[in-house]
Amino acid sequence: MVRFRPWMLVILGMAMGLVLVLILGSRRYGGIDGFYLRVRAELPLPRQEAFVPTPLPTPTRPPTATVTPTAIPAPPTSTATPTETAVHTPEPTETLPPTPTPAPTETPTPTPTPSFASAEPRVELTGLRHEWQTWNNCGPASLATLMSYYGSGLRQADVAAVIHPDADVRHVPYTQILKFARSQGFEAFARVNGTAELLKLFVSNDMPVMIPTWHVDAKGTGMGHYRVVTGYDDALGEWILYDSLESRGISRDAPYRGIRMSYEQLEEYWQVRNYTYLVIVPQERLQLAEAIIGEDMDNQVMWNASLERAQRHLDTNRDDAFAWFSLGGNLLAHERYEEAAGAFDEARMIGLPFRMMWYQSGPFTAYYETGRLQEVLALADATIEVTEMVESLHYWRGMALAGLGDTDGARRAFERALKLRADFPEAVAALDALGE
Prior knowledge:
Helices cover 45% and strands 10% of the residues. By secondary structure, it is α+β, with helices and mostly antiparallel strands. Strands 1, 3, 4, 5 and 6 form a 5-stranded antiparallel sheet that branches. Strands 2-7 form a two-stranded antiparallel ribbon. About 13% of the residues have low confidence.
């Protein structure tokens, strides 16, 4: 009979505990690779700033006067054809796609605007399938949840295999999410300047809405995060959200019915992404969705209203870095690049969370268009020091290097961007433009 000494029992217990942790962690994060990435995220980074670095000396002065809305320029033509010069005019990483419009016919007839129900005091949509996300997978998980409402059987792993095959890549742009939804037969587009009233109308008319927001974890660390709005309660002042990550207040033993979040809290988290919302609906509900959105289906009306909204907020909240960032994005849509660069400078000088540049590329576009190539390079390099797993950072680094005459460095940057995301048309065009 084998006699176990105390120290042997301790080692055996530790080994069994380690095996149990590996099993549970692998189940939670979609396999041993996902669990490894989760553990690695808890280790100290080589360099982790609390904020996005401030601009280089002599930044563009921020706008001080009230901003006057202007006409939105016509969308640029495709940049897929290589140009003769290595530097071409880039488009923002998450440019809003064109508004869906019916195909014209030879004898067009007026289409009656569909009527929609008014917002109810309380709504809770059911019939969605919730999934806890695997590592860095809130986009695919949220999209799978939303599509399940309309009968889709796809799971987050099915979606991720197409738009997020490398779990270590930090962000899935909503342009990729919309593209995938369209491939499944849905009508899908994005708008900015969303409101609480608009979300309530969508939910009251039987359509959940996916929104990119901010999320703050238990350690106080901020990050971008997709959520699906499925209901609300005016009496309690709360939203009902299907959230693939947040579990506070959720019983794992009870059927999932979403988390509750106050109207004020979601407003704060949603502002960080300029109140962007993703409309993903079956084709037969497209006209109803467009009727709910109303005037904001027109790009000029939408961007003008969004610009005015950001300015009104700044009139009484001059120290709000996120508001300055949103102002920059709205000015960018009007191609007012100098003012946009100034707004982004102001946001950075006030202080932005270090993950901010993982999700939105507006500052890069503004600095590039105003000739501040060293600023583009410095901001990209500082962010890449924290993580290199964001393809847009390498794209903009390549654009800056190409403009500064470093063709070899630019080529390496574009190739790195394409390694992280093969379906990246801007990087493909930029690499082609460099030539052999």
